[in-house]
Amino acid sequence: MIITYCYKIKPTCEQSAKIDYWLELLRRHWNYANGQRLDWLNRTRCQLDRCSIVSCPIGEIPGKPDYYFQQSALKQTKILFPEYKEIYSEVQQINLQRLDKAWKRWLVPDNTGKRFGRPRFKKSGKLRSFCFSRVNHPKAAVKFDGKHIIISRFGAIPVIVHRPIPDGFTIKTATITKKVDGYYISFSLEDKSVPSLIPTDNIKTVIGIDVGLKEFLTTNTGETVAVPNFYRKAQSNLARKQRKVSGKKIGSNNWKKVQNRIARLHQHIARQREDFHLKTAHKLVKDCDLIAVEDLNIKGLARNTKLSKSIYDVAWGAFIEKLNAVAVKRGVHVIKVNPHNTSQNCSNCGQKVPKTLSVRTHSCTKCGIVLDRDENAARNILNKALCEVGIILPACGGLDVGQPEKQETSETWVQLSLF
Ligand SMILES: [Zn+2]
Question: Which residues of 358-380 are buried (b: 16+ CB within 10 A; e: fewer)?
Fold first, then answer.
């Protein structure tokens, strides 16, 4: 199991200036290496339906600049630009490896057939981190003694260790990151153990979750978690700051100051959201053996709708990712199911009851059950997941689902009285 712990570091003025200088040099190198690859691509290709008057390779075609090509050119870089001698070659190599990864993600589709965007040229300040591949190794450039990180070319930098490194874990890599409120170090920690999933026969408590914009999530028992709306709440504050920045001269010190405040506000919103997601995930995982969620296409949902801001604000995708991570540690199953028809079908008898988004209650024409719309969907999601895993449905007398039936109906009534 590999986890990442992030700590704030307190470099001196000289140390932070040096970190900034390294980041700038690495950024230039990134842009150069990216340009080299793009150039090669442009020179060796022309569109199928064009004649060579439009594009034709000029001169000798250079060798393909893959990772190994670019890595071996590092020696030459150091001769031409002596300031690069200062940076550890391991840091420069990882910088190139990151570019190589970004290129592979762009050119080679992943197992779902999707490809990422073209690696960008980075503007000033946009390369924010560099990485060391070894920590506390005899040959490593970075050592961590529990209170400081000691880098031979920086000296000791104090670390605010707000939580200890867990027992049994060894530090593999260290990444120094510049964020708007200072510098951070992230350690990736490795533990040889592999968390095992709860065996299917031992699953006792199961839960189905439907996510939405009205309630952040609704469980199959009708419990709800409200939408926190962090972004919406901060919007007037953000707008005020953005009005302020528009009056400042671009690039001036005052402009930079206000820009930093805006960036800090965005960081604050992101941290609030992350905290909310983690707390909700822990609450769910704590007393469950199996959690069923929808497999959502958030990009598709958020496209061209009035609700896109709200959809990005709740960030279900990020939540489900965190839920997965929290669940894995405890051996809890998380099953993603296709959300097709989960809100339309009746969870009791399977009858399709078509309804638009504005219809908030599900009342079945066949069996007469009346439920909250989201609760019905959550039950459907749970049923689908149980079918996938091969557990007998609770309705058939298979196993005991969480809360007793009595509570469910009372919850339903509370739900209904809200409308
Ligand atoms: Zn029904």
Answer: eeeebebeeeebebbbbbbbbbb
Q: Over the stretch 2-17, which tens digit does the pLDDT of each residue have? A: 899 999 999 999 999 9
The rounded Å distance from CA 338 to ligand 1 centre is: 20
Q: DSSP 3-state assignment of 36?
A: helix
Q: What is the DSSP letter of 218?
A: E
**Architecture in CATH of 200-227+272-417:** 2-Layer Sandwich (3.30)
What residues are neighbours of ligand 1 (ion), with CB under 5 Å? 346, 348-349, 351, 364, 366-367
CA distance 205 to 303: 36
- What is the domain partition of the chain in residue ranges? 2-45+56-190, 200-227+272-417
Work out the number of other CB atoms within 10 angstroms of the CB of residue 240: 9
Ligand 1 centre distance from Cα of residue 22 (Å):
64
Q: Which of 375, 277, 364 is nearest to 326 (CA)?
A: 277
Distance of CA 363 from the midpoint of ligand 1 (Å)? 8
Angle (deg, nearest 10), helices 316-330 and 253-286: 50
Q: For 27-48, write each residue's pLDDT tens digit.
A: 999 999 999 999 888 877 766 6
Contact in structure between 407 and 221 (CB atoms under 8 Å): yes
Looking at residue 166, the DSSP 8-state letter turns out to be P
Q: Position 22: which residue type?
A: W
Only one residue has tokens 């591949």, namely 133
